[in-house]
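User: I'll paste a sequence; please echo it back and then give the predicted structure.

Assistant: Echoing your sequence first, then the prediction.
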Amino acid sequence: MNFLKSIAVAFSMYSRIPMPRFEWGSDDMKYHLIFFPWVGAVIGALEYGWYILSKSYSIENIVFTIIAMVIPIIITGGFHLDGFMDTSDALSSWGDKEKRLAILKDSHVGAFAIIHILILGLILFAAIYSLNSDCFIAWCFSFFIARIISGICVVKNKKAKTEGLLSTESNTADDKAVFVWLAVQFVICCILVNYLFKVQLTVMLLALLLSLAYYLHTAKSKFGGITGDLAGWFVCIAETLMAMALAIFSYL
């Protein structure tokens, strides 16, 4: 029962997929991060299904690309994009740490958030449009992988704030169990992708490592730790950089 509740909590928090309603307790939050990557697995499966459908009906590449971009937004409700936009505003403020953290809490959207989301969207569009078949299928795994790393960062890194959703998740989670199970999922996923797309996996992991280093440096130097918005920002950056790297590999 706790297993099923943890799945429901994870999908309720990080997706718009309908889940059974019940009153959450601290026990239900202990292991939900283990299932956070499976929201990405659903996105990846739908992306692959859309790829098969588009090939079967010879759908134009521009239409295919637009729908491929929209699928994650439909599943997550723009949850991570919200964090990306808030973080973009905070980083563009050139204020001190306290001001940046205050901007993260502000519900208003600034001009820099709009500019950055447009840039991110254009880059992602160009990347997906340029992917060959093998690289696109490999990219379908990026949603799962990015969320695994994001979950590990939540339980293993300093938090910038003592309140908020991320702090609550970290305080209620069984850090050791979550880390072990996320690490196991990461290894299994990499073994599978390596079997299918060995070179593409290497390209993706290099891009992931770059985005992770940038994420941790930004969190530490600009905010004093990670936050929920920064975690969403990282997921968006990681997925886009992996798509970019695979697009470059496609051309090469």
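Residues 57 and 107 are 42 Å apart (CA to CA). The chain has a mean pLDDT of 90.
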